[in-house]
Fold this protein.
Amino acid sequence: MRITRNSLLKNQHSGAHATQEHLPLSYFLLVFVLSIPFWLIGGNKLPLPMRLPASSFMWVNPLLAATLLTFRAEGRDRVKSLLKKAVDYRKIRGSAWYLAMLLVMPFIYFASYGIMRAVELPLPKTVKFPAYRAPLLFLMFFLPAMSEELGWSGYAIDPLQRRWNALKASIVVGVVWQIWHIVPDLQAEHSPSWIAWHSLYSVALRVLIVWNYNNSGKSVFAAALVHTMDNVSWSLFPNDGSHLDPRVTAVVAWIAAAAVIAGWGPKTLAHYRYARANR
């Protein structure tokens, strides 16, 4: 049997594709294994107004796991390609998507605050809204968000989207993402009900992140911007996030996610169906 160069390349390509289809499970497991030391020693609070536990530094692990698996399977050059995704902002076309990346999450928290006031849920008598902190918070949270998104978006989401669709892939990554956060949430002394509602919120947030990612040419930079703005927004919620009610934010975030699903479709979250209808 004669094996041509083209057939060999075709087999190599199909084999690589099959490997990619099975990578996320190994990736998820490795992220959790790498995080165990952080969970074991990370119960102390960081010297920040938000009182985050030290285990929050596990944000390095999504990138570390992606780097290790990429290097093992495909070598150093592919690791460089993965890391270059951190500056892939040139994929983003049009300022409208920058507005979505930067403003959707603040809007969700602003709407949540308005709802809490309207229905008289507990809020501090003296509301601190130090907007001047926003640039500093952005700089503080951007690196952790980018490290996570190089893993969740730059490595894990596309094989899942190829296997299922954008919505199902978003939900899978969102569920894994939130399970990964349960130990730090407990160390931050949140109640089980708080964690349950926040888990629902996190899955909706992942849908919104993937929506921005897919509509920006699959830009990891775009995903990191949304992730960063979420962290900035809850940190500015009165007071230093202490009165955040995840029941409200989960409902508001899922309303936003439902609008995205209805408008852009669950298959890709990237084809605005009403624009097609108008044309």
